[in-house]
Design goal:
The protein has 27 helices and ten strands. By secondary structure, the protein is of the alpha+beta class. Strand 3 and strand 4 form a beta hairpin. It is globular and about 80 Å long.
C-alpha cells in the first residue's frame, strides 16, 4: 500500500498540542476550573487528599486507621496503595496533582495508540492518520484518578505484542512492570490478565512454543507487579480478619429483560461513564457501511464482525451482570467481588481498533475527504463529550449559566467558608466529629474535619449497621432510599426523605428550601462522638431534635450556605 504524498505531522508537535489543549484551561482558571464531581471530587479525589493530609500516602500497614473518616477507617480500604498517582499527590498540591496526572494519562494514551497502530495495524498507511487517531484517543472523556486503566491499554498490548514478536524487549519489560503502579487493579487487573492468558494459549496452540516464551514471562511479570502494587488490598481481600466489608451484605434485586435491553443499547452507543462516555454511532455506522456496501475481502469482513461482536458481548455482559448477581447472590458470592461486568473498560480501545481497521480496508477505495470527514466527526463527538475540557473552555468566556451548572473546584470545596466554621468552633478538629446534611461529606473531609459519614467504595459492615441507627426513621419514610442504603450503602450519608425528593446532596444556597421534619437519632450521633451537623439548609424542627443553631455561614464564592448546628448538652 502506497503511503502517498503528504506533509508529515510530527508526533512531538502532537504531544505539545495535547499538553496545550488539555492543560490550558486549568492553568488559566486554576482552582476556578470545573472538575467532575460524581465519583471524583465526592470520593476518589478526597481519598487521596485525606491520605496526603494525614501523612498516609505510603506505608505497608494496612491496619493503620485513618481517623478522619468513620471513626477510623483501615488504610487497606483505600485502593492502589503503591500507585504513581499517590506520588504525584505527595509532590504537588492536591489540585495540581490531579491536573498533572490528567495530562500524563492522556499523553501516555496518545503514545500508546500511536505505537500500537504504527507498529501493528497501520504500518504502511499515511502516518498522519495514525497520529490523528492517537490524538483523538487521548481526548476521550475519562476519570483521571483511575490512571492508565483505559488509556494505558494500547501501550500495554503493544508491549506484549513486542514480546511475542521478539522485539523491543527493554522498553516492553519496563511498560509491563510499571503499568500496575499506574492503573486501578480492581477495574483492570483481573480482566487484562484474563485476556492476555487467553491470547497466550492461542499462541501456544498456533505458533512455535519458543515464539511465546517471552510473552508468557511478561504475563508473569505483570501478575507479580499487580500483586506488589496492591499487596495490602489483595491481602485484605483474601484474609479480612475482623474487618468484614459492607460489600458482603450487598443485596441484588430482580432485573428485568427490559432493563437489560435498555442498558445494552445505552452502553453500546454511548459507553459507560467510568470507562469513557462518548458517542460511538459514527464508528458503528461506518463499520456497517464497509461491511455491507463495500467490496472487501472475506478475512477483512471477519475482522470487522469479530470486533463488533467482541464489543457487543462485553456490553451484554455488563447489561446482564446485575441479573447474574441476583440469581447467584446466595450461592456464589464471588460475583459480588469479582465484578465481571468490568470488561467494559476495554470497549473504548476496541472502538478505536474498529475505527482503525475500517480505515485500513477502505483507505484506497473512498475519497480522502470522506475519510477525513469521518475522523473529524468522531473527533468533534469526543471533544464535545469531554466535559472537563469543554466546560472549562466555556468558563474562560465567563458564561454565568455554565458557572452555575458546573461549579468550580474551589466553589465546591469552599475552603474559606469552612475555615471560618472551624475558627468559630474553636477546637482542634480531631476533638469532635461532624455529619453533613444536604452536601457531600467529602467537602468537610477535604477541609480537614473528622466525619462520621462518608462515601466509600469499601468500609466496615459493622459501621454501616451502626450508622443506620441514625437514619433509620428517614429510611422508613422512603422505600427507594431504604433500598439504596440497605442493598448497597456506599454512600453512608445523613439521608433525609425531604432532600432525597429535592436537592439530595447538592443543596445549593439558591435553592430556597428548608427541612420541615428531620427524624434522625441524635443520641446515636452523640454516642458515636458527633458534636455538630453541617447543614446546607435550615432545619425547622431543630428544637424537637435538641440541636441548637450556632450560626449561618455565608460566602459569595461558595456554592453553599452552611447552618452550623450543635447537639445539645455537648460541651
Amino acid at each position: 500500500m502506497q503511503k502517498g504524498k503528504y506533509i508529515p505531522i510530527k508526533s512531538t508537535y502532537c504531544i505539545l498540542f495535547i499538553i496545550t489543549i488539555i492543560g490550558l484551561p486549568f492553568f488559566l482558571l486554576g482552582t476556578n476550573a470545573y472538575l467532575i464531581i460524581h465519583d471524583n471530587l465526592d470520593s476518589e479525589f478526597v481519598y487521596l487528599h485525606l491520605l496526603k493530609i494525614t501523612g498516609s500516602l505510603s506505608g505497608f500497614d494496612g491496619d493503620q486507621l485513618i481517623y478522619n473518616v468513620m471513626n477510623g477507617l483501615p488504610k487497606k480500604f483505600f485502593h492502589s496503595e503503591f500507585s504513581f498517582i499517590r506520588f504525584l499527590f505527595y509532590l504537588f498540591p492536591s489540585f495540581w496533582a490531579y491536573i498533572i496526572n490528567s495530562i500524563l494519562v492522556r499523553l501516555i494514551g496518545f503514545i500508546g495508540l500511536y505505537l500500537f497502530l504504527k507498529d501493528y495495524l497501520m504500518k504502511q498507511y499515511n502516518k498522519n492518520i495514525v497520529i490523528i487517531l492517537a490524538v483523538i484517543f487521548s481526548m476521550i472523556p475519562l476519570y483521571p484518578l483511575f490512571g492508565l486503566t483505559v488509556t494505558g491499554q494500547p501501550i500495554l498490548i503493544w508491549s506484549f505484542l513486542n514480546l511475542a514478536n521478539h522485539r523491543k524487549y527493554l522498553i516492553s519489560w519496563m511498560v509491563i512492570a510499571l503499568f500496575p503502579f499506574y492503573s486501578h487493579f480492581a477495574l483492570i487487573g483481573p480482566f487484562i490478565l484474563s485476556i492476555l492468558v487467553v491470547f497466550g494459549i492461542y499462541l501456544l496452540i498456533t505458533k512455535n512454543r519458543n515464539t511465546s516464551v517471552q510473552y508468557h514471562i511478561g504475563i508473569g511479570l505483570l501478575t507479580a507487579c499487580f500483586i506488589i502494587a496492591n499487596f495490602i488490598t489483595i491481602k485484605g481481600f483474601l484474609d479480612p480478619g475482623e474487618y468484614v466489608s459492607f460489600r458482603t451484605a450487598w443485596i441484588f434485586e430482580p432485573y428485568s429483560f427490559e432493563n437489560i435491553a435498555r442498558q445494552f443499547i445505552i452502553t453500546f452507543f454511548t459507553g459507560q461513564y467510568h470507562a469513557s462516555l462518548f458517542n460511538t454511532i459514527p464508528i458503528f455506522l461506518y463499520a456497517l457501511l464497509v461491511l455491507f456496501f463495500m467490496k472487501i475481502k472475506p478475512g477483512q469482513k471477519k475482522v470487522i464482525i469479530s470486533l463488533i461482536l467482541a464489543i457487543a458481548l462485553i456490553t451484554a455482559l455488563k447489561a446482564v451482570y446485575p441479573l447474574i448477581c441476583y440469581i447467584l447472590q446466595n450461592t456464589f458470592n464471588i460475583t459480588l467481588s469479582f465484578q465481571i461486568g468490568r470488561f467494559f473498560f476495554f470497549n473504548p480501545f476496541l472502538w478505536f481498533i474498529l475505527l482503525a481497521v475500517t480505515i485500513i480496508y477502505t483507505y484506497n477505495r473512498i475519497p480522502k475527504y470522506v475519510l477525513y470527514s469521518l475522523i473529524t466527526i468522531q473527533f468533534v463527538v469526543i471533544i464535545y463529550s469531554n466535559k472537563e475540557l469543554t466546560i472549562n473552555y466555556e468558563k474562560l468566556f465567563a458564561k454565568e449559566q455554565v458557572k452555575y451548572n458546573y461549579p468550580s473546584f474551589c466553589d465546591f470545596y469552599a475552603s474559606d467558608l469552612f475555615s471560618e466554621i472551624s475558627r468559630h468552633i474553636g477546637l482542634q478538629k480531631k476533638e469532635y466529629r461532624i455529619v453533613s446534611l444536604g452536601i457531600h461529606p467529602a467537602i468537610a473531609q477535604y477541609n480537614g474535619f473528622f466525619t462520621l459519614d462518608s462515601y466509600q467504595n469499601n468500609y466496615l459492615l459493622r459501621y454501616k449497621q451502626e450508622f443506620r441507627e441514625i437514619i433509620e426513621t428517614e429510611l422508613l419514610k422512603n422505600n427507594e432510599l431504604k433500598k439504596y442504603f440497605d442493598n448497597w450503602g456506599g454512600r453512608c450519608y445523613l439521608f433525609s426523605d425531604e432532600l432525597e425528593r429535592s436537592c439530595k446532596q447538592m443543596c445549593l444556597k439558591e435553592c430556597g428550601l428548608s427541612i420541615k421534619q428531620l427524624d434522625i437519632n441524635i443520641m446515636k450521633i452523640k454516642a458515636m462522638g458527633g458534636k455538630y451537623i453541617f447543614s446546607a439548609l435550615p432545619i425547622e424542627n431543630s428544637d424537637e431534635l435538641q440541636i441548637k443553631l450556632c450560626k449561618k455561614f455565608e460566602d459569595d464564592h461558595s456554592l453553599w450556605d452552611i447552618y452550623l448546628y450543635k447537639l445539645n448538652n455537648i460541651e
